[in-house]
Amino acid sequence: MRIHCVQHQLLRGVQTVARAISPRASMPILGNVLLEASEDRVKLAATDLELGIESYVEATVAEDGAVTLPARILTDIVSNLPEGDVEIRVPEGESRATITCEKVRFEVLGLPAADFPVLPSSDGDVLVRLDAGLLRTMIRQTSFAVSTDETRPFLTGVYLVLEGETGQLVATDGGRLALRRAKIPSPEGGKITAIVPGKTMSELVRALGGVEGEVTIASHENQVLFALPGMRFISRLIAGQFPNYEQVIPKEYKQRIRVGTERLLRAVRRASITARDSANVVRLSASDGTLTITSNTPDVGTAEEQVGVEVEGDAVPVAFNAKFLMDALGNIDAAEVFFDLTGPLSPGALRPVEHPDYVYVLAPVRVYG
Amino acid sequence: MTAAQPRPAIQVLPPSAAERIAAGEVVERPASVVKELVENSLDAGARRITVEIEGAGQRLIRVTDDGDGIPAGELPLAFERFATSKIRSAADLARVRTYGFRGEALPSIAAVARVTMVTRPRGAEAAARIVVSGGRREAAGPTGGADGTAVTVEHLFFNTPARREFLRSDPRESAVIVETVEGLALAAPDVSFRLVLEGREVLWTPPEPFAARARRILGPQLVEHLLDLEAAGALARMAGVLGTPQVAQPRRARQWFLVNGRVVRSALLSRALAEAFRTLIPEDRHPVAVLSLHVPPEEVDVNVHPRKAEVRFVDERALGGWVTSHIRRALREAHLAHVAPPPGAPEAGSAEASAGPARPYPGPAEDAGTGAAVAEAEGLWIPGPAAAHGWPAIQLIGQLGLTYIVGDAGGDLVLIDQHAAHERILFERLMDLRAAGGVEAQGLVVPVAVELTRAEAALLEKVHPALRALGFEAEPFGPSAVRLTAIPAIAARRSPEELFRACLRDLDDAGAANAGRDLAERLAIATACHTALRAGDRLDPSTMRALLDDLARARDPFSCFHGRPTMVRIRSRDVERWFYRRM
Ligand SMILES: Nc1ncnc2c1ncn2[C@@H]1O[C@H](COP(=O)(O)OP(=O)(O)OP(=O)(O)O)[C@@H](O)[C@H]1O
Ligand SMILES: [Mg+2]
Fold it and tell me: Where does chain A have alpha helices with state H?
């Protein structure tokens, strides 16, 4: 193999795929990045067997071929090379690469490409195409709610639902639930559902940050493929039955509070200072145009803050985990929200005032003596 | 006993008195002989007592004192039954302040051994000698000898083979002798003791204050791990020395209780001590302690025979509670972190450091015999309670092996077990919430169905209120399942089902380590245990700092409630020794 490519493009590619590598890789080859040269590009790939990331870097290919190189060393080398043309050369039948850039020359020992796990080359069955920015928002608004509880794996992923003209992402850890809906060009086929691992989603959000254009979501056997301009994510799906989330979402409310998102977020963040010692509980109670937020921890202190709001319905004093509130308020992307309360023991809901495409349901903390 | 007044003569008690005070067998084993003889020496106002043992006490026991001695004319009487100089009638019993009063010890010993007594009251012209063997006088007459009394007991149980059969191994009998002398030495700190075991001096003490005596008896290995304790109240006065949790022992061997100056066995005090150390040490360990209580005589139950080592108190509950709370207070004020042993030293809590007579007392060759001096030479001696008090300020260094938080505490290296630390924090929070009557339950938007075994279902019925009080909401869901709609808010990060089952399981397990605690406490333990961070959890610096902050505010930050240490401290000077910066 012998290729030439541009240092900063190569760096971006290496950094993108290296995110798939687990720090606790079980086999040496899983700590390596695959480089595969053909036609006018080199494909980079890395995987932890759950998630595989591929990235394509433009290259002048003088000689086809493939090798795997340790991700850490490759990243360090490429990021420290001078800007300019990089040559990578691997003698036929060997797994030792010579990386040259201007007057710099590295020789790196790798492992044979044949030992690298095979990622599906097929593009899969295309399910849907949507805007990269929209997908990024949808994931960001839901994935923080996934569970870390390994005993219920089906909650550790984001639930993807495609049906008719809408796509939905849903995530819950049992205590709260985030749902983001979007109108998307009609997907092929009927209703499609999949539970995509939380790690895949957070890596995808990161990668989508620098991407413009369309993303194709496709399925291949029991895997999901996200094709972005210049890269592919191939992820295992989580087996299991996602909870029936529709019935979790309150259909009505006893009290509706309309409040500035940033204003409420700041108030909750302040109240949580004196809530940390307990289970991070803040109490809310609204009436006569005022929402009062309090917290107290014996031996530490108390906080109280009033926020001007619009209120509809009777007061429902209720307590929530401050983190649950802050997670949603920080991601809801709306100037104002409706905070719908249904009772001190039943779930509340946050919705943007502007549109009906996002809802966040959170169970209260029941405080009683 | 001081000899301010002239010593009363030995007389035989009237039968009425003799009947009332008979206390059963006097000589069970060599240690009983040692005890009787040393008590006689103390009763005679001795300032210096030497005990020599050969053949684990079967070949020879010799107790030499510098006390009052016995006038030559009274000497034969001393070996008569019910002959004593200490009381005159049964009525004197209530006032008796001496160890002895029955007039039974010497005749009982002389019945099963060959006893030679040489005694000389101060100012007497000569010493007198008497030899009694198997109850028969073999010799008597004047002899040379120093002031005081020397009693030599040879061939113990020579005429009672059955008794010999019951003796334990020589090392065991020797260990019991050592413990006996240690107890007597604690009861009389103003007396100098010397114990020579098979030709080796294993104990030597100058007259000294009680606390110093207690530290000496506990041994030089423990010196760095002892706290002084003092308390006074309406119920009692208490003084003593406590071993830190680090040196808690696998056996109850290093515990001494004194009541009104006498070493006693007291289930009450053992329990009070154990209670004070609860959650600070593992359940199968025993605190090291010397506790001396002075209680008004009317608080002591007079129905227990005054020769018996057991005591009972009139109001046991109140006294037990008082003792526990004061020990607890002393522990709370102290720095209880486990300290890594200095390079090359045996571990303080190890068998080596705590075994019976084989433990390395400073021998006469090494030094005049003071443990303190030996320790000082090694730089171990810290006078008074451990120098540092309370929880130290810790600067975070990082995480070790995904299990320990590493920190810098004023130059010392500290390791904090993240699981143990978090357990302690959560446990105290749960108990506080409960004490405040509050419950924080995190509701679930997605209830969790839990299938129950029949045993679990039966148990659930019993413990449902306690589970609720912690924050679990479980409603029936079909014939053999429940639906969890809320879990303790503190545990919101963990699997609800796993936590719920673990709590049920821990409650069911009657034989488990937590048995004996009340239900709420066991539930709090189960919840905290299954909620806490685990070994293997990667922690970011802010989480670690928060954990250290929370731990610093805990009431008992030095151990988790299973009694495992949360922190081990490695002294900077020991680190310096590792690198040969200091010798
Ligand atoms: N070391 C000693 N120095 C001076 N007098 C002693 C000594 N040992 C014994 N005696 C005298 O001998 C008496 C008998 O001793 P013995 O131990 O048999 O009885 P006791 O001490 O009076 O009562 P008890 O049987 O309860 O010990 C004592 O009362 C005491 O007067
Ligand atoms: Mg006596």
Answer: 7-18, 71-80, 132-142, 198-208, 261-271, 322-329
What angle is formed at CA B33 by the lines to CA B27 and CA B34, rounded to 5 degrees?
150
The phi, psi pair for A272, rounded to 5°, reads -70, -15
Per DSSP, what are the bridge partners of residue B472?
A: none
In which domain, by residue range, is A191 found?
Answer: 125-246
- Residues of A within 8 A of B448 (CB-CB) are 152, 174
Structure tokens at B126: 């000569």
| Fold observed for domain B395-569 | formyl-coa transferase, domain 3 (3.30.1540)
Give chain A's domain count: 3
Query: Which residues from B are below 8 Å from A361, CB to CB?
Result: 445
pLDDT in single tens digits along all 369 residues of chain A: 999 999 999 999 999 999 999 887 778 999 999 999 999 999 999 999 999 999 999 999 999 999 999 999 999 999 999 999 999 999 998 999 999 999 999 999 999 999 999 888 888 888 889 999 999 999 999 999 999 888 889 999 999 999 888 899 999 998 999 999 999 876 666 788 999 999 999 999 999 988 899 999 998 888 999 999 999 999 999 999 999 999 899 999 999 999 999 999 999 999 998 886 667 889 999 999 999 999 987 777 899 999 999 999 999 999 999 999 999 999 999 999 999 999 888 899 999 999 999 999 999 998 875
Q: Which CATH number fits domain B11-205: 3.40.50.880, 3.40.920.10, 3.30.565.10, 3.90.76.10?
A: 3.30.565.10
Residue A174 lies in a domain: yes
List, in sequence order, every beta strand (DSSP E) within B385-535: 395-400, 404-409, 412-417, 439-451, 473-476, 481-488
Taking an 8 Å cut-off on Cβ atoms, the answer to whether B439 and A368 are in contact is yes
**Cα separation values, A204 from A93, A135, A207, B354, B484, Å:** 35, 9, 5, 61, 34
Query: Are the CB atoms for A155 and A174 separated by under 8 Å?
Result: yes
Q: How far is the CA of B70 from the centre of ligand 1 (A)?
A: 9
The response to whether residue B224 sits with its C-beta less than 6 Å from ligand 1 reads no
Instruction: Tell me how far apart the alpha carbons of residues B117 and B110 are, in angstroms, rounded to a whole number.
Output: 10
For ligand 1, is residue B68 a contact (CB within 6 Å)?
yes
